[in-house]
């Protein structure tokens, strides 16, 4: 039977609205080693996806460069949105049951939370997990609350799987520090750099210990991929990038010093971090589903990516094509903001003169609207006035990575643009 005329009109209108919102732009080992040099091309061997995902918009439309509710439904007054996130590209093995206590900042107010764990390059069994307010030196500042998973105390998952806890009553305020403690064995997804001081690991079952956990410092992100907080529905950002975004400064880092966290603090909205040290567009596209698109409630994406792709003969056209592929896949998911590439004072692998030329050409293309209208020009605020290839003194640590001061300058510019052009 054919549809009645009234239903034909509804379908046509809904389809037209969705079309109108589309964007216009077509392990690390356990040691704390610095990430790969930013000039080296990505090493992923599989082909980057080139087809757009059929992902329904969750909260936003990109229409007239304004964030709107998805017609015909307004977003709920309260919802789960990310307050913390890490991509966790590397893998860490726990041969016997080990208790980890991760100290993480959470950038949302709300009354309930849920925690998503992620396995590494093999299966993972979580025995028990709790959440509490974090105290000093690995101790808890509140009574631990047990997490459950489909009503059970623990779970087992295959390699590279995400498992989200049942929602639990646990009031949090913006930028609270949580202690997520879990007993686990097997392969855990992990970050490649150390950026979570105040986190610990101890052999055995110790999830209910309220004092200092003991054991050893373990300041890589491990196991805990995402913390969603149920609170007033609002703007929620994810930053997509490489080690500059993840927050690599030295062998010991703090995610709270990375530019996304500083933007978050300035604007009072979550800016969760999906940066992965050493990656380029190839890697980011291949793993976009599990590291970015798996998040729920994101409204905006900030992309600072490409410096690791510079230096090959055809790098410029490849970067441009992959940038537009990424923006096409992100279009149904978020409003995208793209940054120019920072100065680059050296290249350890690719010919430096070629790197310099390609970086300038890419930034010119971005400023000209090649990746859409929403541009954040971080090169302009970090470069020396007399030399576009050099950082302003004090804003870098090695000619490639920003210093803490550099991250602050970047964050100030991102916050300025989002206030003036993003409605914050």
Overview of the structural elements:
This protein has 424 residues and is an alpha+beta fold. It has helices at 5-21, 243-246, 259-267, 281-286, 288-293, 315-330, 352-367, 378-382, 404-421, and strands at 61-63, 66-68, 78-85, 90-106, 110-133, 145-146, 155-157, 162-164, 168-172, 176-194, 200-203, 216-217, 220-222, 224-232, 237-241, 271-273, 300-304, 335-339, 375-376, 383-384, 387-391. Helix 7 links the parallel strand 18 (335-339) and strand 19 (375-376). Residues 1-71 have low confidence and may be disordered. Residues 24-48 are annotated as: Disordered. Keywords: Signal. Residues 239-409 form the SGNH hydrolase-type esterase domain. This is Lysophospholipase L1.
Overall CATH class of the largest domain: Alpha Beta
Q: What structural class do the secondary elements suggest? A: alpha+beta
How is the CATH topology of the largest domain named? Rossmann fold
The assigned CATH architecture of the largest domain is 3-Layer(aba) Sandwich
Uncertain spans, ≥5 residues at pLDDT below 50? 1-71
Characterize the largest beta sheet: strand count, sense, and whether it forms a barrel. Answer: 12 strands, antiparallel
Tally the structural domains.
Answer: 2
Query: Shape from CA axes?
Result: globular
Strand runs, count: 21
**Overall pLDDT confidence:** 88
How widely separated are the two ends? 49 Å
Assign the CATH superfamily of the largest domain.
SGNH hydrolase
- The topology string of helices and strands comes to HEEEEEEEEEEEEEEEHHEHHEHEHEHEEH
Number of H/I helices: 9
Portion in helices = 10-25%
**Which range does the strand content fall in?**
25-35%
């Amino acid at each position: 039977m054919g549809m009645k005329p009234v239903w034909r009109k509804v379908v046509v209108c809904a389809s037209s609205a969705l079309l109108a919102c589309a964007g216009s732009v077509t392990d690390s080992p356990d040691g704390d080693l610095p990430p790969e040099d930013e000039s080296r091309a990505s090493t992923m061997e599989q082909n980057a996806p080139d087809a757009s995902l059929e992902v329904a918009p969750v909260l936003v439309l990109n229409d007239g460069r304004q964030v709107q509710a998805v017609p015909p439904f307004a977003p709920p007054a309260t919802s789960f949105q990310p307050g913390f996130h890490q991509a966790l590209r590397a893998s860490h093995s726990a041969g016997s049951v080990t208790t980890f206590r991760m100290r993480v900042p959470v950038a949302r107010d709300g009354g309930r939370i849920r925690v998503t764990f992620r396995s590494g390059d093999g299966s993972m069994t979580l025995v028990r997990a709790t959440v509490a307010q974090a105290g000093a030196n690995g101790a808890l500042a509140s009574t631990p609350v047990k997490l459950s998973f489909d009503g059970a105390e623990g779970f087992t998952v295959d390699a590279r799987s995400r498992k989200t806890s049942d929602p639990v009553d646990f009031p949090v305020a913006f930028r609270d520090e949580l202690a997520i403690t879990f007993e686990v064995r097997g392969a855990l997804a992990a970050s490649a750099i150390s950026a979570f001081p105040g986190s610990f690991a101890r052999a055995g079952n110790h999830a209910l210990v309220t004092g200092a956990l003991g054991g050893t410092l373990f300041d890589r992100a491990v196991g805990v991929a995402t913390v969603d907080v149920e609170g007033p529905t609002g703007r929620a950002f994810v930053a997509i990038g490489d080690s500059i975004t993840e927050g690599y400064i030295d062998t010991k880092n703090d995610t709270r010093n990375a530019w996304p966290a500083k933007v978050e603090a300035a604007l009072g909205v979550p800016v969760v971090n999906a940066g992965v040290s050493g990656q380029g567009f190839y890697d980011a596209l291949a793993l976009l589903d599990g590291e970015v698109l798996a998040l729920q409630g994101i409204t905006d994406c900030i992309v600072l990516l490409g410096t690791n792709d510079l230096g090959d003969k055809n790098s410029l056209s490849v970067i441009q094509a992959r940038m537009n592929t990424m923006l096409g896949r992100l279009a149904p998911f978020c409003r995208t903001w793209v940054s120019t590439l920072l100065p680059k004072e050296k290249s350890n692998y690719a010919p430096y003169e070629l790197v310099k030329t390609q970086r300038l050409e890419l930034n010119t293309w971005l400023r000209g609207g090649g990746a859409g209208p929403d541009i954040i020009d971080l090169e302009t605020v970090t470069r020396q006035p007399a030399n576009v290839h050099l950082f302003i003194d004090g804003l870098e640590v090695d000619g490639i990575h920003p210093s803490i001061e550099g991250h602050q300058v970047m964050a100030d510019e991102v916050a300025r643009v989002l206030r003036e052009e993003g409605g914050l």
